[in-house]
Design a protein that fits this description.
This protein has 76 residues and is an all-alpha fold. The chain has helices at 6-35, 37-47, 50-58, 63-66. It has a domain at 36-76. The protein is built from four helices and no strands.
Length: 76
């Protein structure tokens, strides 16, 4: 069995953390492009408390950065 080297493990963890942000940003950019901010805002206000959204806003963040909203294409 190969001995694990902590520096290699730390490098992998660091790389995963940095890539996670990029992947999530890319996915968010795609979702906003497909759905539009208005629909995302409507779903956020339906599913997340105003207090939670206000706290995020106080830090200059939008709700979709933290809360994933399950947009579904509605027939009709």
């Amino acid at each position: 069995m190969e001995t694990l080297i902590p520096t290699k493990q730390m490098w992998v963890i660091s790389r995963l953390k940095s890539e996670r942000g990029k992947i999530l940003r890319d996915a968010l950019r795609e979702a906003v492009g497909k759905v539009g901010v208005q629909i995302i805002d409507r779903e956020l206000h339906d599913m997340v408390s105003a207090g939670a959204l206000n706290k995020l806003g106080a830090f200059g963040l939008r709700g979709e950065v933290l809360f994933a909203v399950p947009w579904q294409k509605r027939s009709g």
